[in-house]
Design brief:
The protein has a three-stranded parallel beta sheet with strand order 1-2-3, covered by helices on one side. It contains four helices and three strands. The longest helix has 16 residues.
Length: 95
């Protein structure tokens, strides 16, 4: 129907990591832009940064500046530093 072009992925609300992976795959197969997001009241755990990179998500939502958000952004920087050829995931353009 073309009613949407993006999906917010909240791994800790979907269920299991397998459920998250299936949802990401379905979204990619249907040309949806992926936005990995944490929940409000999130902790400083940076797992979401690893999932965003693993799923090649072009966007990560961490919200307003705060220690739990900065932890995730700093982890993305550390991940990039460890990669030999880091590239940003592409966002598909809508017509």
């Amino acid at each position: 129907m073309g009613a949407a072009n993006a999906i917010i992925i909240k791994p800790n609300q979907i269920g299991t990591l397998s459920d998250t992976y299936r949802t990401v795959k379905l979204a990619k197969d249907n040309n949806y832009a992926l936005v990995v997001s944490h929940r409000s009241g999130e902790t400083t755990d940076e797992t979401i940064a690893h999932l965003a990179v693993a799923f090649s998500c072009p966007l990560i939502r961490t919200g307003v500046i705060g220690c739990e958000r900065i932890a995730k952004l700093n982890e993305l920087i550390r991940i990039e530093e460890d990669m030999s050829h880091p590239i940003m995931a592409k966002i598909k353009k809508s017509i």
